Amino acid sequence: MAKKIEWLEILFWIIMIILFIMILSRIFGHSATDIQIYITLVMGMITIMGYIMRMNREIEEIKIQMISSFKKVREDISKLTLSKKSKPNN
């Protein structure tokens, strides 16, 4: 199954490439100022936080599905044990 590329990942990598170029231009004496680099860093951090929040939501959905599945398994097991108790021994 192919991995779905999400827009947050694309945005993150674009911001990181821009940051890398800005840092290199700053090192070699060109026009990227410190504030531009800081703004790019903050944008990268905001993107990472958005990605983490999305992953947290997906984990919560998985957790809810697991709880529901375990409840179904518990009900099935209780039905099996009740059906065994109701059968007479031969």
Verbal overview:
With 90 residues, the protein is mostly helical. The protein contains two helices and no strands. α1 runs antiparallel to α2 (34-86). It is rod-shaped, with a radius of gyration of 27 Å.
Compact overview of the structure:
By secondary structure, this protein is mainly α. Helices cover 82% and strands 0% of the residues.
Average per-residue pLDDT, rounded, comes to 78
**What is the ordering of alpha helices and beta strands?**
HH
Helix content: over 70%
Which structural class should the secondary elements be placed in? Answer: mainly alpha
Number of helices: 2
Q: How does the major sheet shape up?
A: none
Total strands: 0
Morphology: rod-shaped
Strand content: under 5%
As a whole number of angstroms, the C-alpha radius of gyration is 27 Å
Unreliable runs: none
What is the fold's blueprint, element by element?
Blueprint: H1 7-27, H2 34-86
Features:
mainly alpha, 2 helices
